[in-house]
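Anyone? Bumping this.
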Amino acid sequence: DAGVIQSPRHEVTEMGQEVTLRCKPISGHNSLFWYRQTMMRGLELLIYFNNNVPIDDSGMPEDRFSAKMPNASFSTLKIQPSEPRDSAVYFCASSPPGLGHEQFFGPGTRLTVL
Amino acid sequence: KNEVEQSPQNLTAQEGEFITINCSYSVGISALHWLQQHPGGGIVSLFMLSSGKKKHGRLIATINIQEKHSSLHITASHPRDSAVYICAVRKGQGGSEKLVFGKGTKLTVNP
């Protein structure tokens, strides 16, 4: 299996621009997670989906962030407009059906907002 | 105060040494995860446990639910074990899959 796929791997943009991060979960997995990692705050859950439905978005920082999962094989995290404090590594992870399974992480997208 | 605390924050060891990384949490949990983040940034799940002990190769994870504490041990450490080790807990007894993470322990094993 190819594992969780994220694109782009690196993104450099200017403040105010729209940024879209993409994730393809492992086939057959029905939970998908978006995380943000910074030096100051470590890893934080932004939002997670189960069967394409958002279950917990309490970690989404503000209205500038939005996430969608239009089908079982694709999800996006959008930041509009981006700000320098959004600079971080964004990870997508997926897990198989049922509670309490390990999560499989993608390679991450390193976002730099100038 | 963070709900998940790890110690030490940084750890340097010589090859062959026995390593212990600790994780304490302050909330009720249904499971605890240990993750490894390689120097290149990739994250791998090492263990998921809700009681007792698990072993995989040179790695051993234990959890004490009553004391709200878990340890990750590495026997016969090797330079390739150098990484950041992250503890994460799944809160509560309900159906949430949400994980809360510790800040990580950076391990450096010197040859």
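Late reply, but here is one note on the structure posted above: Residues 51 and 68 of chain A are 12 Å apart (CA to CA).
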